[in-house]
Fold this protein.
Amino acid sequence: MLELETLARYDQPVPRYTSYPTTPHFTETVDAETHAQWLAEIPGDESLSLYVHIPFCDTMCWFCGCHTRIVNRYEPVTAYLNHMTAEVERVANTLGKRHRASHVHWGGGTPTSLAPTDILRLSDAMRTHFDFDGESEFAVEIDPRGIGDDTIYALGKAGVTRASLGIQDFSTKVQQAVNRIQPFNETNRVIDGLRGVGITEINVDLMYGLPHQGVEEVLATIERVLELEPARLALFGYAHVPWMKTHQKMINEAALPGTEERWKQAEAAMTFLEDHGFITIGLDHFALENDPMSVALKTGALHRNFQGYTTDHAETLIGLGASSISSLPQGYTQNLPQINLYRRAIDDGHLPTARGVELSDNDRLRRAVIERLMCDLEIDLVQICAEHGETADTLAEARPKLEELAADGLIELDGDHITVTPDGRLLVRCVCAVFDVYLEMAEGKHSKAV
């Protein structure tokens, strides 16, 4: 473990680097017209990745950092779905050519807040305009609480291939502190039901750094999770950002573990999972050795997008729904996050684009450097610069900071070859930040590194 003084020095706000440039640097200069032009320029033979955002929940989990809205009636969900299916059609028409969907991901909020008939309705709308085949992955984020057999059946009938279940922690005390009561037996029932309808690829999302969590609680939860036999796990550090997500003010800050304790929780979890047959993927993912994600790591084919680490190779990811983000060859776009404005834009016949950023050649180089560091934990700067028609001198301003990282034990620096050390893995975002020329302009907009 790093010395506490060193750890505290690096435990500063940094992006999660699911994109570069990161979202604080999107602007309104990229608008719906720009977005439409970029979509129309995508070749017809290119496979696409599709992300669908369902921004509704029936209760607010106080740790949540997502764009979501609490609803007690179903009418707002119905109205939203009407507009979302219209957006699917509009995007498809703007593309002008029919495309294969290589990867589909429904996120939220809570996608399983949709009624079973609407799960099928949305799936049918997507299949009407995009081609699915036997290689297409269809993943859905699931909150197991209160899910009935009819919802599970609808997910199977819709063709879902992978389910990602939020758990966070099985400790009753921790669950009460974050307003998410979720018994083990209920989670187990839902996973058994999913497997029963043919959804056999199971991911589990966990958290460390929650109120009242210690190493013992984290390991006890993981031990129980392994009984569920997931193929992949994600272990995210809780990001306490009450200035951005006001509901997090409901969490008792005095009960939150400090930097050193958070580090111990993450390291203990990593060791435990590796001892039980899981491969550590990048910053916060774990997969069984024969899982496609572990294979992608070994072959250098792992990627990172707004859903985290992925095996998806599509160059274009199209975001659908309020607040969703698209990653296109030309740059990034984000939909309007306000549901009323999102719906109004669609009613007016426009794409619901709020803002975005066009990529420069320098952005593409730095994005590639950051992605390889986040995925592979090592990089040869000379090689990757050459692949982008540049020399390593293009990134020369990073050298002093890299030498400082090396002196502090976060990386090994051999000429222009960077290797993140075991102590540096949990702080790899800090290593990536060395190459982020926008970062100083985004203070206060990111979670801390540990």
In short: Residues 54 and 108 are 5 Å apart (CA to CA).
